[in-house]
Design brief:
mainly alpha
Length: 158
């Protein structure tokens, strides 16, 4: 007599999968993790929010590191490098924004041109371009199963 439970009607599962019959299809083994995810998430920087999008991308790149670290190998090392770049990106953007505020507060009233207040704007464009290049180079390196050694990233995580 059964109680009508759905789980009771399921067949018992063995702890080891059955061996594939000769000539039958078996799925290919999973590819090892490469650590490309944090670099790919770096493209969040191109959400159209000035200053904030680069900071958001840095936060996301750094926050993915713990989950990628558990995968070991190239995934852990690429995630560490991407996290260092993400944290560096946050620092660069905060410094640039601080520089922008200082220039706005201390500028003389008769100065109505683009410079010197435009310098932080150009720095944001340069940082955004550097971030694009680092993200693409990181993705390419991760997919080749190598590690990108970024020289402009501050090594926060060792």
């Amino acid at each position: 007599m059964t109680t009508g439970s759905f789980y009771e009607s399921l067949p018992h599962q063995n702890s080891t999968p059955p061996a594939a019959a000769p000539g039958s299809y078996s799925p290919p083994p999973a590819a090892p993790a490469t650590g490309a995810l944090p670099y790919g998430l770096g493209f969040l920087a191109y959400i159209p929010l000035p200053y904030l999008s680069l900071i958001i991308a840095g936060i996301v790149m750094a926050s993915v590191y713990p989950s990628q670290k558990r995968k070991g190998g190239f995934a852990a090392e690429n995630a560490r490098q991407a996290a260092n770049w993400g944290l560096s990106l946050i620092v660069y953007m905060v410094l640039d924004f601080t520089f922008f505020i200082i220039l706005l507060v201390t500028r003389p009233e008769e100065n109505t041109g683009f410079f010197p207040v435009g310098i932080p704007v150009l720095l944001v464009l340069a940082i955004g371009l550097a971030h694009l290049i680092v993200s693409i180079m990181g993705l390419v390196a991760a997919n080749k199963h190598t590690v990108l050694r970024n020289r402009i990233a501050i090594p926060f995580i060792r």
